[in-house]
User: What shape does this take?
Amino acid sequence: MFLGHFGAALAFKRLEPKLSLGTLFLAVQLPDILWGAFLLRGWEEVRIDPGYTAVTPLQFIHYPISHSLLGMAGWSLAMAAVYYSWPTRDTSRHWQAAALVGLAVLSHFPLDLIVHVPDLPLGGDSPVRLGLGLWNHPVATLLVELASLAAGVAVYVALRSTRHPVRPGRLAGLLTLLAAIYLLDFFGPPPPSVTAIAVADIVGLLLLVVFAAWADRRATPAEVTAARVKHR
Assistant: This one.
């Protein structure tokens, strides 16, 4: 799953508007960022095997630290704790926001479960591997990814507020970038190496975090005042 994770982040944003969309992009993709780092360290393993599934050439051999259910639960608690303890002046609904950050991390597992072939471990070296295998059906995969992103966008736009507006140009740019990355990966050639996968994964996802934070900038006091005057 790729676009679906970002759709979840857009929807989570409206559940707790004080959260930056950048923070939520980081949360929903934390397992993949960690996976890239662990690949570089040699702690997890993936194989490039064109034709392994109809959608992705990647065979996920060993990734219990970043992608097991137990591992994601641990990362979920860790990121919620980091968010909760991060210095801030805005402490309203702070524990709720921290809990939502943790939930955003954990949402990665059920969304991946839909598309992966049975390779997602419950934890450690558990022999149980989960996955519904949607990657064996390219058209269905594409439709589910696009629908998941569209649903998140719909929630994000519908529940906007004066203090947390939709910035159409920036949102359009963010969505165009997400779609372009996904379609290039979907229709493009297999990656040249595992190192290239890891580096592109880490750098690309972190850049998307920055872009999302910029696209979702909170309204300034002047913008709030102008909006209120306009709607009187």
Summary: The chain is about 65% helix and 5% strand. The chain has a mean pLDDT of 92.
